[in-house]
Amino acid sequence: MPSNIAVTSSHLMTLGWTVISKCTPQSLKGKCYSSKSMQSIDSKIIELWRSCSRILDERFGLNPPDIPQTIDMTSALQVYRFGGHYDPESMVFALDGDSISNGLSLLGIVYRECLFNALPTILCEELRHDLSLQFALYNIEKKEKGRWTSEWNSLPNRRIRSNLVYGSYRMMNWIHTLGGEKQLDSLLHEFVCMAKYGKPVDFIDYVEYMMRRTQEIEVGFSHAEAKILDTLLKNENASYREVAKITGFSESWVSTRINRLKNKYVLTGLTITPFSKIGIRTFHVLLSAPSWSNPTHFLTDCPFLYSIQPVLSGPWQVLARLAIPDTVENIQSLNRMESTLHENGIAVDIAETYSAGISNSFYHYKVTNHRWEIPWVAMEGWGHRIKKESLDKVVECIDFPSKTTDTYLDPIDMQILGLIHRGNSSTRTIRKSLSIGQNNLIKRIKRLTSAELIQKRWSVYNLGLVERVSLRTTDKRTASILDAWVRDLPRTYLHYGPKRKLFMITELPAGGSTKLMSVLHNLRWPVIVSPLGSSVWGHWTFPDSLWCVETQSWQTPKKEIEIWLDKLTVSSELLAQNQNFS
C-alpha cells in the first residue's frame, strides 16, 4: 500500500477540495480510511464549518475564515492542537485520525479551529485557544464533553510567578462556573474590541487581565450563606460544628452550603505563611512625579517589589507594596531610594506595616437583589457621630502586631514555607518537590504550624466589590475614627505604622469610590483618598535562598539592589533634567 492515498470525488472536485489520508502504520497504527469514509468526514467538516461560520458572524460579528480546501488525515505528532488544526494560509485541515476514531468530537475540533482562526492574530495564541476551546465545549453533545474536557485538562500548566500558575482548562472552567456561557460572549467582545483599537495582548497581559476579570464577576448568595461567610471570616479556625452553633443552622446544612460556596469559587481556603512571623517587613510606597511621566519604572527592578498599581486621581500616581527581608542593608536600600527620588523632585511617602487587620461586613448586602446598597448619606451622619461622641474608643481593635518567630528554621523548613507561599500546600506535592519522607514532613509541618508559621485562612471572592480606594492619614485621632467608621463597609484592609499612622485599602461595589470620596470630603477629615487601578504583580519570589541557617537571619541580595538603585538614579536624574528643560 502506498504511503499516501489521495481520495477525491466529483463532489469534492466541485468544491475545490483535496482529501489526503496518510495511512501508514507509524501514523495511524494500521488504521486506513476508505474513500467512502473520507468523503463522509469531509462532507461533515464542510457542514460544520459553514454552521460555525454563521454563528461567528451572527453572534460575535466575526469574519469566519475560508473553508478548508484540503483535509490531511495524520497522526497526533503532526497536529498543533489536540484532535487537529487548520492552517489558513495553506487552507489545509490536519486531523488526528486516532482521536477521531476514538470518539473525540469532530464538531468540537472544527468549531474550535473555526473560531481560533477567526480571532485577530494581534491577540496571543493562548487567548485564542482558550476561548475557542470553551466555545467548542458549549456546542458539542453532552456525551462528548467528558472526553473533550479530559483532553483539555491534560494540557500542561505554566507558572507565571511564584504564586500564580496558568492552567488553560482550570481558568476557563473558573469563568464558566462564575458566570456561565454569557461570560464567553462578553470576553470575546472585550478582546475583539482591543484588537480593533490596536491593543495587542501578549500572554502575560492575557493572564493578568483574566485574573482581574474573574474578580469582576458577581456571584449572588443568600442570607444564610452571608451569615456563614461572616462567621467563617470572623472565626478563621471554627469547625463546621462551631459555625453551625453560631449561625443556628444544622452542621450537615452548613457543610453543604460551604461546599456549594467553594464550588462556586466564592469561598476558598488558603494556607499561608505570615511575612511578619519570619522577619519580612512590608511597606506601602506612594510615588508622584511630573504629570507627564510614569514613576512606575522606578520600582520595576526592585527585588522586593510585591505588587504595583496606578493611582487614578489625587496627589499620587503609583502605589507599590514591598516585602523586604529584615536586614540593615535591605532597609537602607529603601532609604536610599527615597533620598534619591526626593533629590530629583519625585515625591515619596513610605508607610510600613507594624500591625494589620481585615474588616468584613455584610450589613449592607441585600440578598433580595444580590446587590450592595451602602447608605452613603447615613454613613456621613455616622462619621459625624463617631467623632462627636468618641465612639471609636469603644470599637474592638482588629489589628495585632506579629512577633517574629524564635523557632529554628533550616533550609528544608524554608523550602516548605516557600512552596506553601506558591500555593503548593498538599503533602504529596511538597514530598515530591523536596524528596522528603512522609513522617519527616508531617513532623516539620506540625512544628511550623504550632509556631504559627503555617496558618489557615478563608478568603472570599466575587462579591461584586470591583473598586478599590486607598486611604492615608498620619493623624492618630483621625486614624482611630476612620478605623471605626469603615467597619460597616464591605471589606477593608487596615495597616498601622509607627505612631498609629494608618494606611488602608477598602473594596467597594461599582460606583462606591466616587460616593466614598464625596462623603469623606464632607466630613473634612485629614485623609488622602486615592482610587486605585488594577494591581500588577511584581517579580517577588519567596526568598528561601537568602535564609542563613547559622545566624537564623536573612541575607542581602546586594547585586540585585545595586542594579536597581543604579537604574533608579539614572532614570530619576534624567527625569529631573527633562523637567528643568521644560
Structure notes:
It is built from 21 helices and 24 strands. The chain folds into 4 domains: 114 residues, no CATH class; 43 residues, Arc Repressor Mutant, subunit A, CATH 1.10.10.10; 233 residues; 41 residues. 45% of the residues lie in helices and 19% in strands. Helix 11 packs across helix 12. The protein is α+β, with helices and mostly antiparallel strands and 582 residues long.
Draw up the topology in text.
Elements: E1 5-7, H1 10-15, E2 18-21, H2 25-28, H3 35-60, E3 70-74, E4 84-87, E5 92-96, H4 97-101, H5 106-118, H6 125-139, H7 142-153, E6 158-161, E7 164-166, H8 168-179, H9 182-196, H10 203-215, H11 223-234, H12 240-247, H13 251-263, E8 267-272, E9 280-288, E10 305-310, E11 318-325, H14 328-343, E12 347-352, E13 355-360, E14 365-366, E15 371-372, H15 376-389, E16 400-401, H16 411-421, H17 427-434, H18 438-450, E17 455-460, E18 467-473, H19 476-485, E19 491-496, E20 502-508, H20 512-523, E21 528-532, E22 536-537, E23 547-548, E24 553-554, H21 558-581
Parallel strand pairs: 2-3, 3-5
Antiparallel strand pairs: 1-2, 4-5, 6-7, 8-17, 9-11, 9-12, 10-11, 10-22, 13-16, 13-19, 14-15, 18-20, 18-21, 19-20, 23-24
Task: Write a brief structural summary.
By secondary structure, the protein is of the alpha+beta class.
Provide key terms for this protein.
4 domains; 6-stranded antiparallel β-sheet; single chain; 5-stranded mixed β-sheet; 24 strands; alpha+beta; Arc Repressor Mutant, subunit A; 582 residues
